[in-house]
Amino acid sequence: MAAATVATTLAACGGGDSGGGGGGGDSAENEASDIGITEDSIKLGAHYPLTGVAAPGYSEIPTGVQAYFDFVNANGGVNGRQIEFVYRDDAYNPTNTSQVVNQLVLEDEVFAIMSGLGTPTHNAVTDFLNSEGVPDLFVSSGSRLWDDPEEKPYTFGWQPDYEIEGKIIGQYVAENFPDAKVGLFLQGDDFGEDGSAGARQFLEDQIVAEETYVPGNTDVRPQISALQAAGADFVLGFNVPSYTALSQLTALQLGYDPQWFYSNVGSDPVLVGSLLARFSEGAISDASLLDGVLTTEYIPGVDNPDNEWTQLWQRVWDESGQEGELSNYRAYGMSQAYTMVQALQAAGQNPTRDDLVAAVEQAGGEWEGPGFAPFRYSEDSHAGYSGMLVSRLLGQGSEELTPVLVTDNGDAEITEAENEPASPPESGIPDEEPIN
To answer: Cystine design at 155: which of 85, 136, 341, 427 (Cβ 3.0–4.6 Å)?
Structure first.
């Protein structure tokens, strides 16, 4: 199994030196307070599809996480400790995920798992992580599975879950396309099911067909043909980027031209454009097929270079010295890493694993960062961001169509967000007070 370890050279720390990176503290006071915590380091672990069908795009997320942790380490780390980030390849296969997470916990002895990617993959390891008492933070998936404080007290989501995204999309379509005949194109798991459940709260009477695909089966002609035959003139997709490209190419071959609305997960124009070029063997060279497609956004994208967070991520990426350009996936990883630093700071000078969990529950709901909407963290909620906005893709960029809309699961009302957008700190590093 492929593995990558990022360990920045430890900065020399003498008695009385500032801990750096916010959160206060003196390195001379540091103790080896729990597994994965030494006097001068914090070891974190993650799993991603670095190879296989899900690797395009998603394999860039850990490079963004790495870049931000290196940036924090170069500025003193967290309480004088350097962050060591160990991530392993699971090829988006749940069996592999179980193996690599077992290795991260039992052999690498990480303090916490963060950013583990994928609904079916990460769901294979939540029981193990919770039974071992390992903090399982900020899962890279919008499944509602991560918000279960009673059964999974160590697991936390991060991005808006698919149900609230479905609700926001459903309300927008019902208000702006009231006569549309809606077809659903869904990944055949919790991703598609949660998105459909949210959308159906507003669109039940407009939906004329629902089609699902099995990840790995690249022939979606039966599903797209069925949507066309049902007369769907508006298709809402809860799918990953490769299936955005496949659905677009198939629709083009069938002469089928509905209005498309893809969830945030499947709508990155740069990645989808490259997939369209690959799948079409060069017949399509860019993402022009996506012009006019509707989608959602909850953190700033690289198509907005004037945004202060995008400017910070660009600086972090440039200083990292890694190959390639800043992408939305790398910005996503940096955003998660920023939240992780907030959690480590709030957990205190010499944290235990339980201190880290308590920090998210007690302080996480007030953390500010790149997200457009507030977090929902509390002792009773392990859900991440509370909302997003609707936008339209235009070339490599987008235009906003709504204000930031927030809601919760079930029949909670959808309202406009009341929070003001946060600016990054001048240092680029948060400075959270410890909860104790």
So the answer is: 136
Q: Which three-class secondary structure state does DSSP give residue 34?
A: strand
pLDDT bracket for residue 287 (50, 70, 90): confident
For 342, the token pair is: 């907030």
Between CA 153 and CA 161, with CA 159 as vertex, the angle to 5 degrees is 80
Residues in the chain: 436
Domains located in the chain, CATH noted: 41-160+302-385 (3.40.50.2300), 168-297 (3.40.50.2300)
Question: Which runs of E-coded beta strand occur in 386-436?
Answer: 387-394, 397-400, 405-406, 415-416
Other CB atoms within 10 A of residue 177 CB: 17
Non-local CB neighbours of 202 within 8 Å, separated by 6+ positions: 167, 170, 171, 173, 174
Query: What's 180's DSSP letter?
Result: -
Task: Supply 93's token pair.
Answer: 């296969």
User: What tokens does 282 get?
Assistant: 């060069």
pLDDT tens digits along 332-360: 999 999 999 999 999 999 999 999 999 99
Q: Which residue(s) pair with 86 in the sheet?
A: 5, 45
Q: Whose CA is closest to 165, among 141, 137, 189?
A: 141
The DSSP-derived string for 137-150 is ES-BS--GGG--TT
DSSP 251-292: HHHHT---EEEE-GGG--HHHHHHHHHHHTTTS--SSGGGTT
What is the band of 286 on the pLDDT scale with cuts at 50, 70, 90?
A: confident
Determine how β-strand 136-137 pairs with β-strand 234-238.
unpaired
**Could you tell me which residues are beta bridge partners of residue 400?**
391
Instruction: Give per-residue burial for 96-111: e unless 16+ CB within 10 Å, then b.
Output: bbbbbbebbbeebebb
Least Cα distance to 404 among 395, 421, 417, 422 occurs for 417
CA 360 – CA 65 distance, rounded (Å): 19
Q: Which is nearest to 259 in space by CA: 237, 235, 243, 241? A: 235
SS3 40: coil
Q: How far is CA 159 from CA 146, 149, 407, in A?
A: 11, 17, 13
Would you list the DSSP string of 189-249?
Answer: THHHHHHHHHHHHHHTTTEEEEEEE-TT----HHHHHHHHHTT-SEEEEE--HHHHHHHHH
Tokens representing 75 are 């500025």
DSSP code per residue over 309-356? HHHHHHHHHHHHT-SS---HHHHHHHHHHHHHHHHHHHH-SS--HHHH
**Orientation of helix 190-203 relative to helix 162-176, angle to 10°:** 30
Of 1-15, 17-31, 277-291, 295-309, the poorest mean pLDDT is in 1-15
Task: Please report, as a single letter, which amino acid is at residue 377.
Answer: Y
